[in-house]
Amino acid sequence: MGKKDFGGIVRMKLSNGEQISLRGTLNMNTAGVSSESITNQDGSVDRVMTPRARTAEFSFADRGLDLDALMKADRFNVTFIEDTTGVTHFFTSAVVVGDPQKNRLNGEVTGVSIAAEGYRKTED
User: Fold this and answer.
1) Which residues contact 81 (CB under 8 A, 6 or more apart)?
2) What is the pTM of this model?
3) Domains and CATH numbers, the chain
């Protein structure tokens, strides 16, 4: 089901068993490399590839999660489970990065991402 279907119920689970209730945004950069073109003086094009972390940017409901502890946590694994589509994303050896911001009008926390050393995806 996962190749043509998106959205639905998505859960975020940390390796310590804690679940974070996602809200709205879940953007993933799962390639371990980025590339940039360079144009040479003769008009030909070369490419420079740069290793990069696998990342996931997300927003979530402010339900009292200790953001200081989350930002300072040791490396951990994060799993995003797409219940509706049967797709599961595994980010391994991840750290939380960014600048968390709480919106007190709608209870949403934004400005956080994870950066991980590894990534794997499975489909039911």
Assistant:
1) 10, 11, 12, 13, 88
2) 0.90
3) 10-123 (2.40.30)
